[in-house]
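Weekly modeling sync, notes
Attendees: S.R. (lead), two postdocs, one rotation student

Agenda item 3: backlog of single-chain predictions. S.R. asked that every request posted to the team notebook include the full sequence so nobody has to chase files. The rotation student volunteered to paste the first one in as an example of the format we agreed on. Action items at the bottom.

Example entry:
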Amino acid sequence: MRNILNTIAVCAAALIAAVSAGCNTQGCTDNRSALPLAGFYDAAEGRSLTLDSLLIHGIGAPGDSAVATPGQKISEVYLPMRSTAESTSWCIAYKWADTDTTLLNDTITFAYTAQPFLAGDECGAMYNYRIRRVDYTRHIVDSVAVVDSLITNNNLQQIRIYFRTEQSENPQP
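Predicted structure, as returned to the notebook:
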């Protein structure tokens, strides 16, 4: 009887250790989702911009999809993609006093392929995305550059959004 109890105790300890090791996330990076990080830049000078009056939200996304709201000072933003779709669109609404009109809103649409990726036993599965095309309006956005078309869970700016600013409109001689 004592041997049976010892065997059960050893098996239980081994099972607990195996389950605990399987839930260990120390081998995973902090960012377990493939989220494209987009940085903001001045179109004329190429310098990084920090903006505080943007409303950035998903188009056709369920629920509250705002990733930036007026009052936040941001120089970059994550723009999640849907693994169940082949494209995701984002609206950039400008909330400065003289630009707060829907006529100036810009739209950026990413066409991509979702690629399932098994990160390992510790981290599980996720999706990577391969951007195939970017379409955008050009009201205040000047251009959008994709630095690397493969979006993984690396915390790197892979998209650059260039905005027209007063400096881009009125270059100094």
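Discussion: group reviewed the output briefly. Residues 2-23 form the longest helix (22 residues).
Action items: rotation student to repeat for the remaining queue; S.R. to check formatting next week.
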